[in-house]
Write a structure and sequence with these properties.
alpha/beta, single chain, 5-stranded antiparallel sheet, Rossmann fold, GMP Synthetase, Chain A, domain 3, 25% strand, 14 helices, 9-stranded mixed sheet
C-alpha cells in the first residue's frame, strides 16, 4: 500500500465544515488557515533547496507551527524528525549527527540553542509557534526513501537512542485501524493534544489521528502545570483525552485540592505505561469517566491493542489487538505458547516498521522471518484480551525462578503508607539476583523497611519478597512519565 498522509489531511482541511481544526491560545483555527500555513511552509522549504528524501528536525512543543511543518515536509517528499526540546545540546547533537538532517527548527526565544546547533554545521532557525518560517538554506544530506514519514528516536530500555523510521503506510494503517477499533468515538468529539510530539503516542494518537479523522484538537505546548490543562479542557469543551498514567494522577491531585473537574470529558485513554488499577475508581469518582487502557510501541506506529469502549473494557488489560496484526506469544526458545500462558509478544502486520535507521545489527536481532520481537511479556485470555506482564529486560531471576517486578509492585501498592514503588533485580553472589524495592512513602503512616518486607511475606512466594527496601523522594522518569528502571539499577 502506497499512501500519502498529507493528501488525506489536506482533504479534511478543504471540507466545508472545517471551521474548527486546532484550538490555540483560546482561539479556534479553521482547517483552511492551518492548510494555508502549511502551504507557506512548503514554499519556504522548497526555496531553501530542500529536496525529496531529505529530513527536517523539529525541537518544538505542540503548536500550529509543528503541525504545519509536518504537513509541509510530507508535501515536499521529506521525513520529519521530532526531537525532545528538553534533551540538552549534547544529546541533541548526537541524534542530529546520526539522523543527518537538512535543517532544524526551534521555538523563538531559544536562539542560544539554535546557535549551538548551527555551530555543528546544521542550519538551525528559531520560528514563531504560530507564524511563518523565515528564509533559510538547507544542508545537503544523504537522501532516504520518501515513503518514510517520521524518524522517531527511542532509547527503549538501553538508554542509547535508536532511530525508528515509520512510513506513511505504517501511520495510515495504524490511525485508520485505531479509529475503527475505538467504538465510542463520535463525529462531534474534540481531542486535546498535550502529550509530547517527539514521542509516537502523542504524535500519532493526539496530533495526527484528529487531523486524519477530521476531529478538532486543542493544542497545549505542555501539560504542566496540570491546572492549565484542566482549564483548557473546560474552555474548549474537550471530550477525548489520550494520556499517560502520571498525567491522570496529577489531574486527580489538582481536583482533590479543590479544582473544578471538567464536565465535557467522556473518553480517557492511557498508554505509555501500565495504568494502576487502584486509580480507576478515583478517576470515575472525580472525573466521571472510566479509563480505557491501551498498549503500543514506537516500532508499531504505535497502537497495538486498546480496550474498544467503556462497555467492552476489561480493567487490568490493554484490550484487544487491532485488526491487521498477526500475534504470537512465544517462549524463550521461540516456541508458540498456548492461550493463557505468559510469554514474549511477537508481531507482524502493516503497522510494524521495517527496521532501525542505520542499525542493521539491531534490526536482525529484533526480527525473525518477518516477525518483530516486542521485548514485552504478555498473556492473552480466551476472549482475546491482552494483559501486560512485564518487559523481558526487567525480569529478575532469583535462584533460577523468574520474578516479574510488576507483580511485586502490585502488592506493594496495596500497603498503606506507600505512594509509589518500583522493583528491580540486583546482583547477588548466591542466588544470582535478589529483589530490591524503591519506595516513595506517602508519609502517613510512616513505614519501615522491615514492615514492607513483612507485608510482602504474607502475599508473595519467598523468592519474590524484596530483600532490600530503599526509600526515595522521587522516581527517575522518561519524558512521558515512565519510571526508568535502568537508572534505578545504576544506583
Amino acid at each position: 500500500m502506497n499512501v500519502r498522509l498529507e493528501k488525506s489531511i489536506i482533504s479534511q482541511c478543504n471540507k466545508s465544515n472545517g471551521e474548527r481544526s486546532v484550538w490555540w491560545r483560546g482561539t479556534w483555527w479553521s482547517r483552511k488557515v492551518l492548510a494555508d500555513l502549511a502551504g507557506q511552509y512548503e514554499e519556504k522549504l522548497r526555496e531553501s533547496g530542500f529536496r525529496e528524501g531529505g529530513r527536517i528536525a523539529a525541537l518544538m512543543p505542540n503548536c500550529p507551527a509543528f503541525l504545519a511543518l509536518m504537513i509541509a515536509v510530507w508535501k515536499a517528499g521529506g521525513t520529519l524528525t521530532p526531537l525532545n526540546l528538553q534533551a540538552g545540546l549534547s544529546s541533541t547533537l548526537d541524534v542530529l549527527q546520526h539522523s543527518d538532517v537538512s535543517a532544524v527548527f526551534v521555538p523563538q526565544g531559544m536562539e542560544q540553542l539554535a546557535e549551538g546547533i548551527a555551530a555543528s554545521g546544521v542550519p538551525a532557525m528559531p520560528v514563531p509557534l504560530d507564524g511563518v518560517l523565515p528564509s533559510f538554506q538547507s544542508k545537503k544530506c544523504e537522501g532516504s526513501d520518501p515513503e518514510i514519514a517520521v524518524l522517531f528516536y527511542t532509547s527503549g530500555t538501553t538508554g542509547k537512542p535508536k532511530g525508528v523510521p515509520i512510513t506513511h503506510s505504517n501511520l495510515y494503517d495504524n490511525v485508520s485501524k485505531s479509529i475503527k477499533h475505538f467504538k465510542d468515538l463520535v463525529d462531534e468529539d474534540i481531542f486535546i493534544n498535550t502529550l509530547p510530539n517527539f514521542h509516537t503516542l502523542g504524535f500519532t494518537t493526539s496530533g495526527l489521528l484528529p487531523l486524519f479523522g477530521g476531529y478538532p484538537q486543542v493544542l497545549l505546548p505542555t501539560f504542566m502545570p496540570p491546572e492549565n490543562a484542566i482549564e483548557a479542557i473546560k474552555a474548549a469543551e474537550v471530550t477525548v483525552m489520550i494520556a499517560v498514567p502520571t498525567m491522570v494522577a496529577l489531574m486527580l491531585g489538582v481536583i482533590a485540592r479543590g479544582a473544578e473537574a471538567p464536565s465535557t470529558l467522556r473518553l480517557l485513554v492511557t498508554g505509555g505505561d501500565r495504568f494502576p488499577q487502584r486509580l480507576d475508581a478515583r478517576t470515575q469518582q472525580m472525573l466521571g469517566v472510566s479509563v480505557l487502557e491501551g498498549y503500543g510501541l514506537t516500532e508499531t506506529s504505535p497502537v497495538v491493542a486498546l480496550n474498544e469502549g467503556v462497555q467492552q473494557r476489561k480493567l487490568g488489560t490493554v484490550g484487544k489487538v487491532l485488526e491487521g496484526y498477526d500475534i504470537e506469544v512465544r517462549d524463550n526458545d521461540g516456541n508458540l505458547l498456548p492461550v493463557g500462558t505468559e510469554g514474549a509478544l511477537w508481531l507482524r502486520g502493516p503497522s510494524v516498521f521495517g527496521g532501525y535507521f542505520k542499525a542493521p545489527e539491531i534490526t536482525r536481532e529484533k526480527f525473525r522471518d518477518g516477525w518483530f520481537n516486542t521485548g514485552d511479556v504478555v498473556k492473552m485470555d480466551e476472549d482475546g484480551y491482552m494483559t501486560m506482564v512485564d518487559r523481558v529486560t526487567d525480569i529478575a531471576i532469583v535462584g533460577g525462578f523468574n520474578v516479574y517486578p510488576t507483580e511485586v509492585e502490585a502488592v506493594l501498592q496495596q500497603m498503606p503508607g506507600i505512594r509509589e514503588s518500583a522493583v528491580v533485580g540486583v546482583k547477588h553472589p548466591v542466588s544470582g539476583e535478589i529483589i530490591k524495592a524503591y519506595v516513595i512513602p506517602s508519609g502517613d503512616p510512616k513505614i519501615t523497611s522491615r514492615e514492607v518486607v513483612s507485608f510482602c511475606r504474607d502475599k508473595l512466594a519467598h523468592y519474590k519478597i524484596p530483600r532490600i527496601v530503599e526509600f526515595i523522594d522521587e522516581m527517575p522518569r522518561s519524558s512521558i512519565g515512565k519510571i526508568l528502571k535502568r537508572e534505578l539499577r545504576k544506583r
